[in-house]
Amino acid sequence: MSTTNQRILVVDDEPDFVAYLKTILEEDGFRVTVAFDGEEALSCVRELPPDLVTLDIDMPRKTGVLFYRQMKSEPRLRAIPVIVVTGLRQANEYAGPFVERFFEVGRLPLPEAYLDKPVGRDELLSVVREKLAVTEAAAAS
Amino acid sequence: MREGDAPTSLLVEYLAAVRHAPGHESAAWVAAGAPVAAIARHASAGGDLAAMPRRRWPTRGLRALWYGAVGFLFGFVVLHPIAMVIFRWLDPRLAPTMGDHGAGSLLSPILHAFRPEMTAMGLVFGLFSAAIALIEGHYRGRLALQRDQLVQQAALLREKNEQLMRLEQANRRHTRFMVHDFKGHLAVIGGFAEVLLRKKTLTQEPAEVEALTRIQRQTQRMAGAVMDLLEVARLERSPALRREQTSPRTLLETAAADVALPAHLGKVEVGSLHLDCPVVTVDTRLIERVLVNLGSNALKHNRRGTRVVLDAHPTPEPGEIAFTCTDNGRGLSNVALATLFEKFGTTHSTEHEDSTGLGLAFCKKAVEAHGGRIWCESSEGQGARFIFTIPLEPKGASNVDN
Questions:
Q1: Which of A85, B135, B278, B281 has the most CB atoms around its CB within 10 Å?
Q2: Which class for A105: exposed (0-12), middle (13-18), buried (19 or more C-beta within 10 A)?
Q3: Do residue B195 and residue A121 have CB atoms under 8 angstroms apart?
Q4: What average pLDDT is seen over chain B?
Q5: Structure confidence by residue, pLDDT tens digits, B286-333
C-alpha cells in the first residue's frame, strides 16, 4: 500500500501482540519500532521521536499511564499522537471510565484515540492514518 | 441465603457476641432461663451481653437443689391451700372439718391447710410439686443445650456461606480476567492467520489457504463464545450499552456474512422485509452477535442444508422493529420452548450436541438490555422462528459514551 516513511512506536508487553501490530503496520508501509515496557518506550521516544505511538496500559516496570505522563510533559514530544490500545476498558465496566480518568489527571492533553483489544487490522490502520493526517495538517498550517 | 431470617441472624449475633465474652458459657446462660428472644433483642439493641442479667449454676446439683426447693415451697404454700379451697367447694360436707361454720368463706380452707395436723398433706403436695419442678428443670437444661448447639450450627453455616460467597466472587473475577486474556490471545492467532492469508505467495497453495481459513474460522467461533461469556457476565452486572445508529440492513448483512457461522452446515440468507425498516440505535456488536448466534443455532440444531433467513420488519406496534431468524428445520417441542433461554439450558435432543446453551441466554440478555423482547415460535417438524424486538427510541439501560 502506501509507502510512507512515517515511524510508529508500538508499546506492549506481549511480544506476540507487538509482532502482530508490527506486521500489520509494516505491511502498510510504516516503519515500526517496538518497546516492551514504559522505560524502554521512553528512551526510544527521546532518542528518535516517532510520528505516532500505540500504547498498552498494563505493563511491567513502568505502566502506560506513567510513560504517557512523562512523554506528554516534555514539550518536544507533546505533539506526538498516542493511540491507547488496551483490553482493560472491556475487562469490566468500571475499568473503562477508570482508565480514561487516569489520563485526565494533570494538565496534560488526552490521548488521541482509544482502541479496544482485540483490535482488527482495518480498524487499527484507519485510526492510525486518521491521527497521522491530523498531525500533518497541524504541522503544515 | 444471604440475609437469613431475622431471628436466626439475631441468634447468630448473640452467639458471636457471647463467644468473645471471656470466661462465659453460653449454655449455662441460656440454661438459666433467659429466653432466646430476650437475648436476641438485647444483642440487637447493641446491649453489652456480658452485662445482661444472668444466673449461673456452678454444678448441676445446685441447680437441682434450687429447682427442688422452689418447687417444694410452691407445692406447700400455694398448691396445698388452693387444693383445700377446691376440695371444700366440691364437697360442702368438708366445711365443718375445716373449721368453717359460716357459709362460703375462702379464708378458712386456706388457714386449714397450715394447721399442724395438715403438715403431712402439705408435704405430699410439696414433694409432688418439687418432682415436677425437677423434671421441668432437667428438660429446660437439655433444651437450652440443644438451643445452644443450634445457634452454633447457624453461626457455622453462616460462616461457611460467607466463605462460599467469597470463593464464588473470587472465582468469577478470575474467570473474567482469564476469559479476557483468552480474547487477546485469540485475537493474535486470528490476526496472524489473516496476515498470512493476505500474502500473495500463499494464494498458489490452496491447502495452506484452506488450513489458514479453518484456523481463522475456529478462532472466530471461539472468540464469539468468549464474547458471549463476557457479555452475559457484564450485562448481568450492569446493562450498559454502546449505542450507535445503524440500518437493520447492515446488521443483517454483517451477521449473515460472519465467518463464525458454520457455513458447511447450511446457508444463512438475508430476507427482503428489512428494506421497510428505519434506522435503529443499538449496540451493533451485541445485536450482530445475537443474529449470528440465532443463525448458527438454527444451523447447528437442524439437518444439513437447512435454509436460514435473517430479516427484520416493523411491528404492528409503532416504535419498534422486530428481527427474525427463520429456518425450515425440525422445529422445537413445547418442552424445549419452555427452557430455551435459560443459561446453559440446552434441550439435549439434537444429534450433534456441541453448544453450551449460553448463546441463547446471551441473546436474551442483550435484547433485554435494549429494552426489547425475544421469543420463539415453533411447532415440532415445522421449522422455528426466533423473533426479537428492538425499540426505535432507546429505552431501558442508559447509554455509555464510546
A1: A85
A2: exposed
A3: yes
A4: 77
A5: 898 899 888 888 888 777 778 888 888 888 878 888 999 988 888 877
Cα distances from B62 to residues B31, B52, B123, B135, in angstroms, run 13, 22, 21, 15
Determine contact: B223 vs chain A, CB below 8 A. Answer: yes
**Chain A residues near residue B177 by CB distance under 8 angstroms:** 91
Asked if the Cβ–Cβ distance from B195 to A24 is below 8 Å, we say yes
User: Is B73 within the bounds of a domain?
Assistant: yes
For residue B351, the SS3 value is coil
Contacts of B195 in chain A (CB under 8 A): 20, 23-24, 27, 121
- B159 and B266 share a domain? no
Q: What whole-number distance in Å separates Cα of residue B234 and Cα of residue B173?
A: 11
Let me know if residue B1 belongs to a domain. no
Strands (E) located in B232-352: 244-246, 266-270, 280-282, 306-314, 320-327
Task: Read off the pLDDT of residues B232-242 as tens digits, 9 standing for 90 and up.
Answer: 777 877 777 77
Angle at A104 between CA A124 and CA A22, to 5 degrees: 25
User: Residue A77 burial by CB count (10 A; 0-12/13-18/19+): exposed, middle or buried?
Assistant: middle
For B202-225, the pLDDT digits (tens) are: 667 788 888 888 888 888 888 888
Same domain, B42 and B101: no
Closest C-alpha among A109, A93, A43 to residue B401: A93
Question: Which pLDDT score, from 0 to 100, does residue B164 have?
Answer: 94
Do the domain assignments include residue B396?
no
B237 touches chain A (CB under 8 A): yes
Strand partners, A105: none
| Residue of B176, B187, B223 with shortest CB distance to A92 | B176
Nearest beta carbon to residue A87 from set B184, B191, B223: B184
For residue B184, give the chain A residue with the closest CA. A118
Cβ of A27 and B400 within 8 Å?
Answer: no
Domain holding B94, by residue range, is 60-166
| Option in B194, B223, B237 nearest A121 (CB) | B194
**Chain A hits for B190, Cβ within 8 Å:** 118
- Pair B307, B296: CB distance under 8 Å: no
In this structure, the answer to whether residues B100 and B181 fall within a common structural domain is: no
Could you tell me if B176 lies within 8 Å of chain A, comparing CB atoms?
yes
CB contact under 8 Å between B190 and A17, yes or no, is: no
Of B188, B230, B240, the CB nearest to A16: B188
Q: Is 0.80 topped by the overall pTM? A: no
The answer on B249 and B348 residing in a single domain is yes
> Of B41, B117, B113, B116, which Cα lies nearest the Cα of B77?
B113
